[in-house]
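lol ok so funny story. i was supposed to be doing the assay writeup but got distracted and ended up predicting the structure for this chain instead. priorities right. anyway since i did it might as well share w the group, maybe its usefull for someone
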Amino acid sequence: MYRVADAEEKLTQEKQLNADRKKDWTTAHERSNRDLKTVRDKIVRVNNKRAKESKEFDLLSAAYKEKEAEALAAQKSNEEARACVAALEKTIEEQQAQNKTLELLAWDLGDDCKWLLTRSVPLIVGRLVRSEELAKYMFDLGGAAYDSGRKDGYSESKAAALARTKDDKFDLFKVDFAGNYTSKCQEFEFMEFGIL
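and the output, tada:
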């Protein structure tokens, strides 16, 4: 019996030991589960924080790229403005140089105009007055006017004019003096002088 009693006692001790171990394992398992849950919660929090930070990073990265693009556009705009200002300054310098040239030219033209008024115009007028073409024309014009007036002044012509008859025996009726006078006036309008 000794063996059965020892075996029963041993079995009871083993059961107790197993129960104690089971209790220890359960406690260890619960503690391990709690620790794992805590670690899992920490992992979830870290992952959430990481996802939030990743979204913030993406937003900041997009904002940075946008600001960088704006800065490049502003820099390009500034360069274009500088180029435009440089072109305008160059145009202003060219205009100022051209204005100086034009002022000198105007000064020279003013001097030329003064010379023309003081020397050239009186010279031209003097040559016109002394020209043979003008003297011949004035002589012809005076003769035509004289003949035209003389024709109308004769008393015989006056009587013939009142009677509305032509007296063809006078030399004055053989030439068209009024037409001659008109043609001389027209000739003067288109007369050219070879004086210079």
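The two ends are 172 Å apart (CA to CA). Helices lie at 2-129, 132-153, 155-163, 177-189.
back to the writeup now i swear
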